[in-house]
């Protein structure tokens, strides 16, 4: 027997004693399933325990968290236990080492800080993201970036990862969207590799989780993310998370996770102002190696004014213009007249779909008002009542964040929007006229 094996046997027998002595496992369970297990290897953060039967393996995997905790106490460092059948271990020695070490970063290389245009709408989130990239785990943990779709959250998230990789190649970085995370959890459970999956994530220096709102309601993924999250934050590893809404507004996420999110820094991204939109357009043209004189300034002004709610739409409008110019005159100069032609042929949005605009129109028509009156500052009773209803319906049917609804209704504060929704909810409980009106409006909407 080698010295290394003696050492492993010693650790393992201490672990087993503690499992029994401290009452983590009942004696009968221990004798049947744990007694024959052996500790075969410890390298880096991975401890490999082998067992003789499938049943032993299943039971040990269930208790792996307890084993990890004891190993951590004995070795004074984080160690994650992997349970394998003896045969699996013998045949698969190589593979075990590979799964332990490899984790693809999944970063999108095109998104960097260099090509991210900074303006008042994203200054805060940019500066916080850069701080995290510059010194991972030191400043804000987690950093939580929230805002509507198309405002650069995914871009910033990848910029953090790409920056860390460029400046410190020894650091491990991983980008994932929460829907990919859920699929990976499902697959790992199927393949019985969930512990590997967790261990890989817990060994990271930087974890970038995009669109965390999609974790809502996915209990197992939620639980695993919670563990990974705690481990990383406790060991001062950086986590950056994005979402389409503020953490407290994500329904279906456990309170304990939301309060953990709030322990770091939450910053919002807004729609770019005119100057930022114009700068983004110019930078995208440069990126596509387009001559700056290809498009007239008043055309760029037109796009920056009309499509700036969402940078993706801004890019879409630019692409459409370029496509139009290629089709109608082999890359000819784009003036205002041509631009109007290009946008005139754009398909209008599908009216069957419920949108904020449709809700505004239907509610305004129902009460004989104009859409402008609905979003105006007027506090006249019938106008404000209709406004409350429209706001309530936006929340109910579109599930939009309060901030976003506020923007759609005359840039009102999110607390005003919450109070509108609450007013209608209260009235619905006691006022049958209100429920009839809402029912009729909903019929017109669908
Ligand atoms: P989100 O994740 O918030 O929905 P994305 O990060 O996917 O938005 O951004 C959508 C597109 O807009 C991407 O192509 C991105 O590069 C671009 N974009 C957004 N904000 C900026 C910015 N400030 N500077 C340059 N490009 C931007
Ligand atoms: Mg995104």
Structural features, described:
- The chain has 446 residues and is α/β, with parallel strands linked by helices.
- It is 58% helix and 9% strand.
- It has 21 helices and eight strands.
- The strands form two sheets. The chain has a five-stranded parallel beta sheet, sandwiched between helices. A three-stranded mixed beta sheet has the order 1-2-3.
- Helix 10 links the parallel strand 6 and strand 7.
- The termini are far apart.
- Magnesium ion binds next to helix 7.
- Residues 111, 115-117, 122, 149-155, 280, 311-312, 315 line the site of adenosine-5'-diphosphate.
Secondary-structure topology with pairs:
Elements: H1 3-21, H2 27-34, E1 38-43, E2 46-51, H3 54-62, H4 64-75, E3 80-85, H5 86-101, H6 123-134, E4 143-146, H7 153-167, E5 173-177, H8 178-191, H9 194-202, E6 206-210, H10 219-234, E7 238-243, H11 255-262, E8 265-268, H12 274-287, H13 297-306, H14 311-327, H15 336-344, H16 356-366, H17 371-375, H18 381-398, H19 402-408, H20 414-430, H21 432-445
Parallel strand pairs: 2-3, 4-7, 4-8, 5-6, 6-7
Antiparallel strand pairs: 1-2
Bound molecules: adenosine-5'-diphosphate and magnesium ion.
